[in-house]
Cobalamin biosynthesis protein CobD (Uliginosibacterium sediminicola), 309 residues
Amino acid sequence: MMLALALVLGVLLDAALGEPRRWHPLVGFGMYAKWLESRSNRAQPAALARLVGVASWLLAVLPWLVLALLLKAWLAQAAWLLDALLLYFALGARSLGEHARAVAAPLLAGDLAAARAALSRIVSRDTRRLDAAQVAGATVESVLENGNDAIFATLFWFALLGGPGALLFRLANTLDAMWGYRTPRLLYFGWAAARVDDLLNLLPARLTALSYALGGECRQALRCWREQAPAWDSPNAGPVMASGAGALGLALGGPAIYHGALEERPPLGCGASPQAADIARALRLVRVALWLWCGLICVLCLSGSLLRV
């Protein structure tokens, strides 16, 4: 029951407060990760660069994970409060909505330049030449994919391992976002960060895809997941985005420019091209899935407590 209480408190803190405006722990971790990469990622043979990447990943994550576990053991009966705080810092539900609405508002007002600028803060693709439908589509894709990374995979590891589990996933996901690119500098050094994130996301991503299907056009979402996800480059983003696009009845995917290079991405979903109003629909789908996850985890916690009695 303490886990359920920590879950509710962590989710409510995120909804009420959002990300800390100053002294956010993840911002500090990101600065540490950037410094660590600059010091350890030198010109090296591929095999050695991968080993250095593994060691750097461990050096980045393990000290904080061990600290969280020690604090939880020390707090004893009050450990659920630490779980709640760690979940709050790891969750990004309110932040996801704020960033998406920052794109939707100018797009609805016809200010394409401002919408492009807001979109550039949440995606890594080149946004300078996108039209209104492409801006809306990129935002919906970001909402669907980051719904898994910032919310549901975090909740999955929280349900399994409490606050330290949420912390582990969020740090691993942050390192993937910083080190996991296939650029000449990061191709081998960031291999471990990308693979660990893929592994930690393997089951949560498919549960997220199922949640999206249940919250929208279910049959269509499952069909898009089955037929389109295998063609997507990422083994975890494919199911999430294909199912989400199908649930919303939108046609997503297609070509996009990343780091100056054009990528021909497979299609996702089916139906109409996305419009500004579809951003709110995507956020609503994520919100429905969030309450579904919270309710299910609380029921499982209650069932476990009753069985122990």
User: Anything to note?
Assistant: Residues 51 and 189 are 8 Å apart (CA to CA).
